[in-house]
Amino acid sequence: MEYEYRVYAENIVGIGKASKVSEGYIARDPCDPPGTPEAIKITKDSVTIVWTKPEYDGGAKVTGYIVEKKELPEGRWLKANFTNVIETEYLASGLVEGNQYEFRVVARNAAGVFSIPSYSTGPITARDEIEPPRISIDPEYTQNIVVTAGDNFKIDADVHGKPLVCAINKVGVGEHADVAGIVVAKDRADEPDLDIDPELRKIVTIKAGASLRLFIPIKGRPTPTIKWDKDEASLKETAQVEITSSYTLLVIDKMSRNDSGKYTVSAENSSGTKSAFVVVRVLDTPSAPVNLKVKEITNQSVTLEWEPPLLDGGSKIKNYIVEKRESTRKTFAAVVTNCHALSWQIEPLQEGCSYYFRVLAENAYGVGLPAATVDPLKVSEVPQAPKSLIVTDQTKTSISVAWERPEYDGGSRVMQYLLEVQLKGQEKWSAVNTFKTMEATVPNLNPGEEYLFRVTAVNDKGKSDPKVLSGPVMTKNLVFEPDVRPEFSSYSVHVGKDINIDIPIFGRPKPTITWTKDGAPLKFTTRVHIVNTPTHTTLSIKEAAGDDGGMYSINVANSPLESGAVIMKTPFVLPGPPHIEDVSNIAHDGMTISWSAPETDGGSEITNYIIEKKDRTGIKWTRCNRQKVTDLSFRVTGLTTGHEYEFRVAAENIVGVGEPSLASSYYKACDPKYKPGAPGYVHVIDSTKTSITVSWGKPLSDGGSVIQGYIVEVCKAEEEEWIMVTPPTGLRVNKYEITKLTEGQEYKIQVCALNKLGVGEPAVLSGTAKPEERVEPPEIHLDSELRKGIVLKAGGSVRINIPFKGRPTPEIKWTKDDGNLTEKPVVEKAHNFTQLSIDSCDRSDSGKYTLTLTNSSGTVSEFVSVKILDAPGAPQNLVVKEIRKDSITLAWDAPLIDGGAKIKNYVIDKRESTRKAYANVSTKCTKTTFKVENLIEGAMYYFRVMAENEYGIGPAVETKTASKASEVPLPVGKVFLTDVTKSSVSLAWEKPEQDGGSRIAGYLIEMQPKGTDKWGPKALAAPVIATDMTMEPSIKIPFNTYSVLAGKDLKLEFPVLGKPKPKITWAKDGQPLKVTSRMNIISTSATTGIEITEASKEDFGKYTITAANTTGTIAEDVSV
Questions:
Q1: Report field, pTM of the whole predicted structure over 0.70
Q2: What single-letter DSSP state applies at residue 495?
Q3: What percent of the chain shows pLDDT beyond 70?
Q4: Is 624 left (phi over 0), alpha (psi -120 to 50) or beta?
Q5: What is the DSSP string of 546-571?
Q6: Secondary structure of the chain: what % helix, strand, coil (to 5)?
Q7: Can you give the pLDDT at residue 486?
Q8: Which of 518, 455, 507 minimizes the C-alpha distance to 483?
Q9: Residue 16 and residue 329: Cα distance in Å, rounded?
Q10: Count of other CB atoms within 10 angstroms of residue 159
Q11: What does the pLDDT average to over 753-760?
């Protein structure tokens, strides 16, 4: 939390005006400094240092370290690292050979708190280490050693020095190479390491009933000790843990929802501790809803309310199921199965009946555990029965009882309670009285008799069911031995102060109480007196004196009992003076005072410190804190800028305020006067052919003044002249694009912070930077919810917004079901996102929408499935299958689009050709064929079929022509004139679509002379045999040669005639034509053709088209 402060001054007149409000200060625990760093390797230009972690991290994990170096003898502390140091080891490079340096380390935790710097390493000289070899051996082994033949012996020796490595050939030994660092013969120690698989760093999802296997490789010397826990608690007994020197394995069989959670594995050895966690989510049915309670009861309904389950089973709660059970039955019946709220009114219920209720949650994996009412609920507007009727006291002539209010009052306030009594062995209940409170005493009972009690709640609608005492109770006096229980065995009070000692007593009948002091009866005076109640006795002493100390005893009449002693101790003394240790964090309006506790606290705990200040120009000490201070530091605010102050501190205990400390030196209230530190971590975040964009962090120190801006300077790599590229007043942001640079030229870059005292130290970009165009392959950031697909009802709107990256900006292409989009979707394109929008969606908008991004670095695609919940499309291929004189059979195929739901049934309508309106035939057809009966023979009918799902009835498919309900054949099809002579005409025709149910035996030909209205039969030389009309195939090709430019598309299409329909084949240069992604053959009932995409020289040649049927074969050539 962040706090601000203000201070009031008070004198004998009163409290004055408040000071100015202080700056905001965030309350954080300080982080301890790291351990003292040590140099483990020193060369002429680098030093490697190591340190230990802080003992206390301030309540937040340590996230990094800052290493500072100082060049001796007169250098300043400067930041040595420009990237975050995570490990406790750092290589400081770029040192000057022969110079001396000091190093120290600052820790930073996750809360953003920096520790104070560690102790310094002490002076370190940058030079290569040379250590002559030497051997240390136990002195007893320097003498002659006598051993018996056959015995074993061992000599230990310590070898010191820096080994050298040399190469040797037949000419001789070459120059040596140094081995880095000092080599000491000892067992190697490595911190533990857990090699967590990247997949385990995500949430591990597993179905209920399956087994969990968490395999984690481990490293470390000596072998670490492994410990597993779940949600910071021990694993359940069924969990199996296997541990070896190289891995650990956690196995849990038959996972359930309760096994969801965070599993943590810890590895620890003498070198450190390492832990990691894996989050496991079990996909299971949800747990029971919580806090199920009755919200309202009427004479026909009960309203329940509840809260969602604690465990949702890894899936969103879809709905709740509410069930009821009469108290006389054993099974529950469902009330509602798709409740989406957290309450439900159950109606209608039978007035006067008692019911149990339960609620279950349902997710994608099923129905979870139930939450049920414990007691049956009576459906009425009278209140529920009172709860928990108990006996609170009893004597030989009376019994006291108490109860709790009903759980539900029936919708109106309970006005009173009726208490009734029944003598054991009798059936009659007698009314005692009515009570507005929830306790009563029944007097005038017969001693030694057993009685039963019951209580009934009454509101303006009537009486509740009675609550009966669990068993009869006898009228008799209760006898308990007296008991005296002082809270403490001794009490202390300051001389002149008052003391009241309240001591509980217990006993039946009520005990008599007497007090003694030092063995003699206690004398009562105006200062000392006793107050007794049925449950307590109290000793009161006003203005205690020294002779009030002593041993006090309490005696009871039926069982004397000595109480604990009450001793008046010698008064405490005042605490000693504290000692001011430091005055730090000096600013223009405040500074922090630190002190150490006094050497003696006067025998009582220090309860407060009083901090006082005095202006050099004043003569009076002024108190700085109004509230109690128990810490050993305090931030004094509200100081006058430029004034000098001294401070002192006094300690306070239960006795009072002790002597103040010696006054501190004078300190001037002013901001520190120095320039800001170097900005943090300068790095390149982008570049083009002529620009470089750099970013940096704030300095660790602002020099005591607000950072006014940042200055960016560049310098060509081969030059030393730095050029300022920002305004002299600096930038107010932490990012800048340096423009007008030379392509391919390498640059050095540095950034300085600026405050009102001047420009601070520069932070230099590590290495050099070059302006060059960055190339990034396209990358699509598809939301996890979009990957699941979009489901919405017809009429809604779809918005598919997809961010992406890529340089250069990728080309955006949307497709639907691998084809082009229609005009309905609207596509919005930007440099970093694209959005596809569809308003007023219908079933035709369902499908797979694919986004493809392409630039010079590659191509990437992602798709989103869209499902529109709508009425289904029209059925396909409706045909008349069979015709009778009183019925027609229809057949069809299911719709191509089911509207996102299963087809429930089909609706069939009919219409006579003389009418305009359709009449329904059936609404319950579940097959794709239907026989329409009860037709009028000879009448002409049209038919239509519609599909229906849970979202409605879709569009219809209709018969194109009217069908005649008869068993005669339908008319012949088209009639063709095939030949004409001076005295004859040759005709051909298509056979009827329906033969009326029997084979066609022949055809009747009629002729009408021109100019007359009469049709008459024409006598034929021979009967006409019903045969299919035949025609030789023919292909109409307008040109023999077609040309196309390379890379362009070519489409050729030619009409084809013939009866029956000819079979078409294509060949190229005498070989069957191969269909590829570029070459495709397109054929219809009347045409044939080819389509060539992006034609190339491979498509050059002669193409042959062959058409064949039962009457003959024909071939035509085309050159491309």
A1: no
A2: T
A3: 91
A4: alpha
A5: GGG-S-EEEEESSS---------PPP
A6: 0, 45, 50
A7: 78
A8: 507
A9: 77
A10: 13
A11: 86
3-class DSSP state of 808? coil
CA–CA separation, 469 and 474 (whole Å): 13
715 bridge partner residues: 748
Rounded Cα distance between 29 and 133, Å, is 49
Query: What are the Cα distances from residue 111, in Å, to 60, 190, 677, 694?
Result: 6, 29, 22, 26
Question: How far apart, in whole angstroms, are the C-alpha atoms of residue 464 and residue 385?
Answer: 5
Do 441 and 414 form a contact (C-beta atoms < 8 A)?
A: no
Give the pLDDT mean for 76-105: 87
Cα–Cα dist 994/968, whole Å: 9
Give the CA distances from residue 167 to residues 131, 176, 351, 956, in Å, rounded to whole numbers and listed in that order: 21, 7, 105, 93
CB-CB contact of 635 with 25 (8 Å): yes
How many C-beta neighbours within 10 Å does residue 687 have? 19
Write phi, then psi, for 366 (nearest 5 degrees).
Answer: 130, -170
Predicted confidence at residue 944, as pLDDT, reads: 94
Q: Give the pLDDT score at 135.
A: 66
DSSP 236-281: PTT-EEEE-SSEEEEEE-S--GGG-EEEEEEEEETTEEEEEEEEEE
CA pair distance 713, 726, nearest whole angstrom: 8
Question: Nearest-5° angle of CA 325, CA 328, CA 329?
Answer: 50
Q: Is 710 exposed, middle or buried (0-12, 13-18, 19+ CB in 10 A)?
A: buried
**Cis preceding-peptide flag for 509 (omega within 30 of 0):** yes
What is the helix (H) or strand (E) element at residue 946, kind and residue range? Answer: strand 940-949
The mean pLDDT value of the chain amounts to 84
Give CA separation, 1034 vs 1038, 1063, 1088, 1089, in Å: 13, 11, 12, 14
What is the rounded CA–CA span in Å between residue 161 and residue 185? Answer: 10
In the DSSP assignment, the letter for residue 114 is B
pLDDT of res. 48: 93
Closest of 780, 785, 759 to residue 851, by C-alpha: 780
- Rounded Cα gap, residues 37 and 87, in angstroms: 13
Q: How far apart are CA 41 and CA 48, in angstroms?
A: 5
pLDDT at 879: 92
Report the C-alpha gap between 357 and 364 in whole angstroms.
Answer: 24
Mean of pLDDT values over 89-110: 89
Q: What is the C-alpha to C-alpha distance for residues 871 and 793, in angstroms, rounded to an integer? A: 10
pLDDT per residue over 304-325, tens digit each?
899 999 888 888 888 999 998 8
In DSSP notation, 891-933 reads: EEE--S--TTS---EEEEEEEETT-SS-EEEEEEE-SSEEEE-
User: Could you read off the pLDDT of 813-867 as tens digits, one per residue?
Assistant: 999 988 888 888 999 988 888 999 998 888 888 889 999 999 888 899 999 998 8
CA pair distance 541, 548, nearest whole angstrom = 8
Task: Retrieve residue 98's tokens.
Answer: 């022969």
Rounded CA gap, 576 and 650, in Å? 8
Reported as a single tens digit per residue, the pLDDT across 341-392 is 899 888 888 877 888 999 999 988 888 899 998 888 777 777 888 888 888 8
- How far CA 319 is from CA of 360, 363, 588, 1046, in Å, comes to 9, 7, 63, 62
47: nearest Cα among 3, 13, 92: 92
- Which structure tokens are listed for 910? 């009919």
Q: In this structure, are residues 1000 and 969 in contact, taking their beta carbons and an 8 Å threshold?
A: yes
Number of residues that this document lists for the chain: 1120
Q: What is the CA radius of gyration of the chain?
A: 50
Written as six digits, the tokens of 1070 are 């005498």
Is 596:576 a contact under the CB 8 Å cutoff? no
For residue 139, is pLDDT > 70?
no
Beta-carbon neighbour count of residue 105 at 10 Å? 29
Give the span between the Cα atoms of 72 and 827, in whole angstroms.
Answer: 66
Distance from C-alpha of 1054 to C-alpha of 1105, rounded to nearest angstrom: 10
